Amino acid sequence: MIQAPDLPAWAAFIVAFLIVTGAAITLIGSFGLLRLGSFYERVHSPTLGTTLGTAFIVLGSMTCFSVLQSRPLVHELLILAFVTITTPVTLMLLARAALYRDRTEGREDVPLIDENDEQALAEI
Amino acid sequence: MTSPEGLLLAMLILPFLGSLTAAFLKPAARTPAWALTWAATLIALGIAAYLYPAVEGRAVLRNEIEWLPSLGLNFLLRLDGLSWIFSILVLGIGALVTLYARYYMSPEDPVPRFFAYLMAFMGSMLGLVLSGNLIQLAFFWELTSLFSFLLIGYWHHNQSARDAARMALIATAAGGLCLLLGVLLIGKIVGSYDLDRVLASGDLIQSSDLYLPALILILLGAFTKSAQFPFHFWLPHAMAAPTPVSAYLHSATMVKAGVFVLIRLWPVLAGTDAWYFIVSTTGLLTLLIGAWAAIFQQDLKGLLAYSTISHLGLITLLLGLGSPLAAVAAIFHAVNHATFKASLFMAAGIIDHETGTRDLRSLSGLYRFMPITATLAMVAAAAMAGVPLLNGFLSKEMFLSASLAEHSGTIIDQALPALATLASAFAVLYSLRFIHQTFFGPAPQGLPRIPGEAPHWMRVPIEILVVACLLVGILPAMTIGPYLATAVHSVLGDATPAYSLAVWHGFNPPLFMSIAALGLGTGAYLLFRKTLNRQDGAPLIRRLKGRKIFEASLAAIVDTARALERLLGTRRLQPQLRLLVVVALLAGLLPFTRLGYGLGDHQGTVVDPGFAVVWMIGGACAIGAAWLAKYHRLAALILTGGAGLVCCITFLWLSAPDLALTQLLVETVTTVLLLLGLRWLPIRAEEVWPGGRAASVTLRRAIDLTIAVAAGLGMTLIAYAVMTRPLPGSVSRFFVERAYPEGGGTNVVNVILVDFRAFDTLGEVTVLAIVALTVFALLRRFRPAQESVGAPAQQRVQNAIDEAREGRQVGDTLKDYLLIPRVIMEWLFPVIMVFAIYLWIRGHDMPGGGFAAGITLSIALIVLYMASGTRRVEARLRVQPARWIGFGLLLALLTGMGAWLFGHPFLTSYFGYLDLPIVGKVPAASALLFDLGVFLIVVGATALILIAIAHQSIRRPSASILRQQALEQGEG
After folding, report:
1. Closest CB to B803 among A82, A85, A120
2. Average confidence (pLDDT) over B315-319
């Protein structure tokens, strides 16, 4: 493991707080993945980690290295930006795929499509 | 190049250079191809003629170029009297054949290819006669086999030509292997492959125990090449080649190669009993059988082919007798035969060309249509028959007098004069038949074409050769005399006998034998000429079908191979893999059973709990993937990805960011490509064994599991034993220390890849490019399994919905499906691209590099393809991976070669610092360009494979399949 003995105590506390908070939020999201009932509920919980969790960890990292190198380091913000932009893509793709499957299987608890479509599907 | 040595090399290179150039001409470029061949041959011939003074009086011209001096092997060209006279034959008749072929080849034939083969063959033959060491001789020997294969099979649309070419190749190349073994034995005896040293070690060779095996192997080579009985079968079939090829191969070159080697090695190999019995018996048998079979041929070229066999037998017999006088006759006859046989083949070609047939039975009275050709053919045939005042007569006289001379007193020797006369009578008979049947008698009827005289320039080669026959025949001492003397002296040296090249030797026994042969042959023809036309194959030897034996032995070889394959091979993947793993396991176990297993001194470090958890997750993923691989491929694939990620984390943990980065990227691309491929796998039925699993299946699985666990455990134990030992002194320290001072980069991994081991990298990326092209080529013609041929269910559902809804057309759903994710993915494309370039630039000093950058860019492409679909992407973006690969390879190669400009070895890299405005000082190494090449190749290769798979999805099944499916649905 990479240690950071040069980090002053006050900074270490801040960094530790940020990282532990981020990790905890991500962990909660992962628990959600385990505990929540349906796919549509489950799909939301990991996003907690990829947005808020990542934000805290990125902040922690920025603080840590800015203090260590005595200059503001902000390029971790890029990580945050890209993770925030790309997570919804995954979310949408997964949700649409699940919706598609449930519709073709004719499940009751998903938003329906109109009747014409149902007829068309029945013919296939 | 103007020194004699340089000219010698130029003479050999010219035909090959011409061949290479002709090969790149367009098929329609008849005249350029011909002119090229003609010029190359004439220049080479001029050089050969110019070099004559260098070989006069037993002088030898040598040009030695170092090749493998440590093994005593050099590329050595050696010109002496014998090789000079053969060079003149090869090039001279080559030039005439070239001229002839220009008019002979039909406009539909791709003539440049023909001339390319012809020149390559000429060069190989020249290389053979000029070889100064035995290995080189065997090499050019095999080259002549190879190019004769191409020449005989030139009309490859013709089944018989293909068969004949293959037969000739197998016979002569197998003989070539024997020859190689033979010369290796000679080299072992003498201690050198240098021809001059070998020729000086005759006694040493003949007294060695290895003499007999070496002799037999060399003779096998020579006999197959020179079509000696019983290996003569390939020659008549080779008549399927275009006539210029026959005229060249069977007069001056191919078949003379065997004779040439016999003459070349005559001073060291001849003179023993073994030589006498094997060579003279084979020669005599071939002489008689060839001549006998020639009498009964109905095909013009067939007759000439068997007469060639017979004349080669004559030369072999002369060499076998072992007396210097007979050897002189052999050399002389080799030259004479080349001249008259080449002209006869060309005449036969003209007859075939003009009448459309080569069948002696349907030819007749052609003299009135083509008097000039007829006269020329008559003179040449008379030379073949041994009529006085022609060159054939002189060498035959020498043969007859050699047959009379006392040699050994054995039965062969006693019967030789009589048999020689008989064979000469046969020669008279078939020559007479050839001429009389073709040119005399009533006018031919029912010919495919009205015959006429051939173009003047097509006859010129024959005219030249016939004039040569006449000049040599009438004035031998003034024409061929000095050159023959040079050749003979170069072979026989001090043993050269006194011989006389005169037409008139007085009334002596050979003359009476000659007259008897002429009388016998003419009489027999007059008696039997009607009967001969009714014959179908030669009596007595009809059963001796060399071809049948050859084909039977080939079939036997193939059958044996098949039987072995059945016995040892399997087409099933599982047994193959099982065998492989078990063998590897046993091989790995073997050293431990003998030397024992022990751990090293290093004590294990404390396991970090976090790391252990990560590894447990990875292990679980791997096992899960294996568990699910059979029925749940998608899940298995995702789990594999999980295991890959754990690998990546491990690399990071152990401070190998470069590896981690590459692992992450490769993992991404692999998963996507595998996902794309999943669609084409057949659906697995869960219930494979309807009535419950058989016990044998359970047992097999248990065994497989045991093997797998054993192999895994074995690997673990070995790895553990290795890792508990101290690291031996390896090169890694060297790399770490030299990376910056010598490579100019702080990223050691990258410096190794693009600088220290750049040549390896170049090889690897080349392989990568080849693999990508191969995958592309395979997938382009890929036809999926029947059940996955149609459009995927999702597409069909989509289209059905589009059709059902009011105001929608098919494809509308697709157009705005998942619009937002698509836009995000499309916008990310340039971002990932910038990232890739960043990885490439910083690669020399920090984690990154061309490979990682390439993979990154391909991920960007994959994302784009996934977001927009194949058609949309390709409508907007020029995706040309093959060009990227080509450009990348070129760039890498040129960067490497750039070092030459500065006098450094290939792929030496240069590094320095560039001062850029705004950016500041940046490190710049020439290795960066090399890395760009790698970058491009990797992108190209990945994209090529991706595209090949992606295009499968948009490919519509062929019309016939769709129709068939519709039909089936109608029935159902």
Report:
1. A120
2. 92
Of the candidates B336, B545, B306, the one whose C-alpha atom is nearest the C-alpha of residue B434 is: B306
Separation of first and last alpha carbons in chain A: 58
Number of domains observed in the structure of chain B? 5
Predicted local distance difference test score (pLDDT) of residue B972: 47
pLDDT at residue B784 in the model: 67
User: Does position B257 have pLDDT exceeding 80, yes or no?
Assistant: yes
Contacts by B475-484 with C-beta closer than 8 Å and gap 24+?
A: B476/B391, B476/B394, B476/B501, B476/B502, B476/B503, B477/B501, B477/B502, B480/B332, B480/B335, B480/B391, B483/B52, B483/B81, B483/B84, B483/B85, B483/B88, B484/B85, B484/B328, B484/B331, B484/B332, B484/B335
Residue type, B779: L
The answer to whether residues B614 and B708 belong to one domain is yes
Q: Is B499 helix (H, G, I), strand (E, B) or coil?
A: coil
B625 has pLDDT over 90: yes
Determine the straight-line distance between the first and last CA of chain B, rounded to whole angstroms.
82
pLDDT score for A121: 59
Q: In this complex, which of B608, B796, B820 lies closest to A124 when CB atoms are compared?
A: B796
**Residues of chain B found within 8 Å of residue A117, distances taken between Cβ atoms:** 801, 804-805
Mean pLDDT value across residues B933-940: 93
Domain range for B443: 298-536
pTM comes to 0.69
B888 is a domain residue: yes
Question: Does residue B431 sit in the same domain as residue B387?
Answer: yes
CB within 8 Å of B16: residues ≥ 6 apart? B119, B120, B123
Mean pLDDT of B39-47: 93
Average pLDDT over residues B942-959: 76
| Chain A residues with beta carbon closer than 8 angstroms to that of B846 | none
Residue boundaries of the structural domains of chain A = 9-123
Same domain, B255 and B335: no
Tokens 């017979």 correspond to B310
Do B360 and B492 lie in a common domain? yes
Q: pLDDT tens digits for B731-782? A: 777 888 887 777 777 888 888 888 888 889 999 999 999 999 998 888 877 7
Question: Does a structural domain hold residue B689?
Answer: no
- Clarify whether residues B545 and B510 are in a common domain: no
CA distance B783 to B785: 7
**Domain's final residue, options B519, B536, B553:** B536
- Given a cut of 80, whether residue B957 has pLDDT beyond it is no
In a domain, B286, yes or no: no
Tokens, residue B903: 């006098």
Contact A120 B801 (CB under 8 A): yes
How many angstroms separate the CA of residue A91 from the nearest CA in chain B?
A: 9
B825: distance to nearest CA of chain A, Å? 8
Residue B285 lies in a domain: no
Q: Is the peptide bond between B230 and the residue preceding it cis, with omega within 30 degrees of 0?
A: yes
- Report the distance separating Cα B274 and Cα B262, nearest Å: 14
Judge: A124–B805 Cβ closer than 8 Å, yes or no: no
Residue A1 has pLDDT above 50, yes or no: no
CB B241 within 8 A of CB B154: yes
Do B485 and B621 lie in one domain? The reply is: no
> Are residue B484 and residue B383 in the same domain, yes or no?
yes
Interface predicted TM-score of the whole assembly (ipTM), two decimals: 0.86
Q: Which pLDDT tens digit goes with each residue over B338-391?
A: 999 999 999 999 888 888 888 888 888 888 888 888 999 999 999 888 888 888
Highest average pLDDT, of A13-27, B66-80, B788-802, comes from: A13-27
Same domain for B127 and B158, yes or no, is yes
d(CA B833, CA B843): 15
Q: Which residues contact B917 (CB under 8 A, 6 or more apart)?
A: none
Cα–Cα distance between B267 and B269 in angstroms, integer?
6
